[in-house]
């Protein structure tokens, strides 16, 4: 099965906000071949990014 067909068409649940309750808390996960980091920022808002090194 093509991963593009599964993971790139719909919203996905990465986790629950209770898993990152405080500013600076984060979680990492793998969605298909993509490493993702989800973090609660300094302003308290949750953000998700590709987890890559530069």
Keywords:
1 helix; mainly beta; Rieske Iron-sulfur Protein
Description of the molecule:
There is one protein chain. The chain has 54 residues and is mainly beta. The protein contains one helix and three strands. It has a three-stranded antiparallel beta sheet with strand order 1-2-3, with no helix packed on it. The mean pLDDT is 89.
Helix/strand/pairing class, anyone? mainly beta
* CATH-derived architecture: 3-layer Sandwich
User: Helix tally?
Assistant: 1
Number of domains: 1
Helix content: under 10%
Low-confidence stretches: none
| Mean residue pLDDT | 89
CATH superfamily: Rieske [2Fe-2S] iron-sulphur domain
What overall geometry do the principal axes of the alpha carbons give?
Answer: elongated
Q: What is the CA-CA span between the terminal residues? A: 31 Å
Order of helices and strands: HEEE
Strand content: 25-35%
Strand order of the largest sheet: 1-2-3
Q: Main sheet? A: 3 strands, antiparallel
Q: In angstroms, what is the radius of gyration?
A: 12 Å
Total number of strands: 3
- Classified by CATH, the class is Mainly Beta
**And the CATH topology?**
Rieske Iron-sulfur Protein
Task: Summarize this structure briefly.
9% of the residues lie in helices and 33% in strands.
Produce the secondary structure layout.
Elements: H1 3-7, E1 26-31, E2 34-40, E3 46-50
Antiparallel strand pairs: 1-2, 2-3
């Amino acid at each position: 099965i093509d991963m593009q067909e599964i993971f790139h068409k719909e919203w996905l649940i990465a986790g629950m906000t209770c898993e990152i309750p405080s500013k600076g808390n984060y979680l990492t996960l793998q969605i298909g071949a993509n490493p993702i980091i989800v973090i609660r920022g300094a302003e308290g808002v949750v953000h998700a990014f590709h987890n890559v090194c530069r």
